[in-house]
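Worked problem 6 (solution included).
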Amino acid sequence: MSPLVITILIASGIVALIAIAYINHMVENNKLEKARIKADLNDRLRRCTDLAEALPGQLMTPALKLLLSGLQLHFSQRMLPFDKSNNALKARIEELRKLIAQGESIPVNNPPQPILNEAKAKEVRFQLENLHGQLTRCAKEGIVPANEAKHWLKEVRNMLTQVHIEFFGNLGQQALQQNQPGQARLAFERGVQYLRKQPDPATHQNALKKFEAQLARANAMVLESGKPTPDQPSELDAGLESLGGDSEWKKKNIYD
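Solution. The predicted structure is:
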């Protein structure tokens, strides 16, 4: 065998090895990318499902249920090519299609969850942050039209305000029932301050007037008691700073 033939065979072998290594690398990268996409879709599907099922009933509406069902259907359908033998996923897709077909008559079975303490208020706020994040990302990807996303982002801000209204009101009422007018006054005062800081205070005029009336009543009770209100840390002082102010996440628009 001539040296030229040997050289050609060696070169061909090297080229073949490089080609095999490159193909293996591409196959591995493709597998990793598919796994990444599947994990991302699964996470987004889980988040939307949790919101649809766990958001308090006083915040859930048929329109919001339809939106979340539509997102669940979208992510489920995108997941199916990665898991074609998943019969449970196929059944869920059919179930979601039937739910969405009901339009505004879609059943809303979320039970109301009273916002009675700081822990519950923070839990619901976290859910709303999650909803805000999902809407923002879906708008950027074109899954939800921009105008529709803007509408829902405004609704999320209104829901957060509703959570604060319920929270301050419940804490104030609890304090009155426990004969603590000073703490009740603090709760109602926080409610008044929070609503006055909102960009559209007119939307919450009824709630603001109610807080103002409750604040006046609590003030009168404090004066009647003749006892000075101690300036000491309380559940309101210690726990509401993060709840009472405007949050960065709710200030963002869908183009950030």
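Discussion: The longest helix spans residues 3-54.
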